[in-house]
Amino acid sequence: MPMGTFRCSICGRRVQMQNQIDMPIFDPATGFAVCKNCIKEINHFIEEDERRNNTKIKNSFTESLGELLEKNKPHVIKEYLDEFIIKQDRAKKILSVAAYNHYKRMKYDLENNGGNDEIDKSNVIIIGPTGCGKTALLSHLSKLLDIPFAVTDASSLTEAGFVGADVEVAVRNLYYAAGQNIEKTEHGIIYLDEFDKIARKSGENNSITADPGHEGVQQGLLKMLEGSVVEFTARGQRKHPEAPTIKVDTKNILFIVGGAFVGIDKIVAKRIRKGEASLGFGVDVPAKEDDDEKFNELIHQVRPEDLMKYGIIPEIIGRLPVICTLETLDEHSLLRILTEPKNAPVKQYEKLLAMDNVQLEFEEDALLAVAKKAIERKTGARSLKGIIEDVMLDVMFEIPKSNESRKIIVTEECVTEGASPKIVPLDTPEPINLEKE
Asked: Which candidate in 19, 67, 95, 199 could, as Cys together with 311 as Cys, close a disulfide (CB 3.0–4.6 Å)?
């Protein structure tokens, strides 16, 4: 290290250089040098700029939260969900309140600079049969709030060290749904679907065998649910010690887990019947037609102890304080789903055919037949559009061949027997059939 007096290239002052700290940047070949005072000032300006920017971001987000809360009170959220989802009023209320309180919690935390008086996060567990509207409810909720929303299949996750996806994948999916914006990611919603598939195989009892796809995954999810910093690699990159990672704080991410939890109604019934007669003449055996009504009655009585019996570990249940239950959909409900919501399947096909100058009409019996077929398949509302798609396939193939103004009438036979829908030219009163090739 050269000793002597040197001129700072920035401030122009001459500095007696006794050690490296006096002139942290020094190039003997060119004479370029920067003194420690200039380094201190530059560092001060950088810190001030970062502080101002962070304050702006914080204030901006606080203001946006205030607007979001003002515009989306629980009753407003429910009214919006009513436009797209039939029935499930209890679930709509629970989710509306959960979302509203979650953002109030964030606003409180920002305004109090994350003080000691914290409000606990209210993650949600959704229980309901397949096709009852679990994913649809959350999807529409995220659209209303205009926040990132990502669905991850929990059954694809495995414990760290086993072949499969790590639990951090759920946060990574949200990160990409947020356009790789970390701030948006840290205030989004993660939905873990098929959560019942990672229940312990042994129920509430401990298992002595390895269970990489079940209890181990639940243990791995704990740190995310409680709000810690999660590290993950970018898509397409292998996870190894030298790989660059992305860090996301899950403190303000709302976690919603859901699944069909097949058989949990029997666990609830057993708990309720405990101490009562379960065999012999005292047993009340419900008729087959009452099964759905009995299920809907039991599903709303699910308690944390029932989830533990099912195989969800107590630590997870403690971090999912809000239990949201959905009812099975009956024939009348499926009939309403076909026509009433803004995005109803029948309305979608009406719009599609209107672009080809065609009017579409479903007879009441035809819609009823679609609802009955969905119940037979035991898939709820999930299969409604698929059933209509089968009925409309030949129509949608043939119609574009001509630009004539026509009317399509779908009858019950089209659904039950595969008959061709009727085509009525608007200038001809007599209907003609569209023959399948």
From this structure: 199
